[in-house]
Amino acid sequence: MAELTGKHVLAITLTFFGVIIAVNTVMAVKAVSTFPGLEVENSYVASQTWDKEMAAQKALGWHLAEDYDEAAQELLLTFTDSAGQPVQVNALKVLVGRPTEAKDDVYPDFIHEGGAYVAKVPLTRGKWMLHVEAAAQNGTLYRRRIDLMVER
Predict the structure, then answer these.
(1) Distance (Å, rounded) from C-alpha 26 to C-alpha 84?
(2) Sorting pLDDT into bands at 50, 70 and 90, what band is 41?
(3) What is the pLDDT at residue 1?
(4) 32 pLDDT higher than 90
C-alpha cells in the first residue's frame, strides 16, 4: 500500500470540493434558467383583497369544466352557473403553459360555440397548466388555475 502524503490529501480534498462546487453550479444555473417568474409582484398586497375577491367569485356560483381533444388539438372550457346552465362571460383571458417554465406560454383566442369556449392549442405530451381569468357581466372576476395532463 502506498504512503498517504500531503499531496494525496490535497488532491482528494480539491477533488471532493470541486465535485460539490460543480454540481451546485449546474443546479443553480438550471434553477434560474427554468424559473417562470413570480405569480404576483407583492404577495402581501395581493393578500389584502383576496378574501373579498374570493367571496365575490364564490357568489357567482360558477363551475368550470375543461377538456382537451388531442386529435383536434382543441381546448374546451365550459362555464356553468349553480343551476348547471351555460354562462357567457364578458371577457376571457387564458394562459396556457408548463408549470415549471415560461417558454411555451401562450394566450389562445377562444371562440364561443354552443355554450362553450373553444381554442386551437397544439399541446405536446406532459403536464400543462391553465390560468383562467373570466369576467362576469357585472365585472366580477372568476380566476382559476387548472392542471391538465396530455397523454399522447
Answers:
(1) 51
(2) confident
(3) 76
(4) no
pTM for the full model? 0.73
Give me the amino acid identity at 50: W
The DSSP string of the chain is -----HHHHHHHHHHHHHHHHHHHHHHHHHHHHT----S-S-HHHHHHTHHHHHHHHHHHT-EEEEEEETTTTEEEEEEE-TTS-B---SEEEEEEE-SS-STT-B-PPPEEETTEEEEE----SEEEEEEEEEE-TTS-EEEEEEEEEE--
Q: What is the rounded distance in angstroms from the CA atom of residue 30 to the CA atom of residue 37?
A: 14
Q: What percent of the chain has pLDDT over 90?
A: 80
Instruction: Provide the grid cell at 102.
Output: 415560461
Domain 50-150: CATH architecture, name and number where available? Sandwich (2.60)
Give mean pLDDT, residues 1-22.
Answer: 95
Q: Which one-letter amino acid corresponds to residue 8?
A: H
Q: What amino acid occupies position 119? A: A
Q: What's the CA gap between 58 and 147, in Å, rounded?
A: 20
Q: What angle do CA 103, 104, 110 make, to 5 degrees?
A: 140
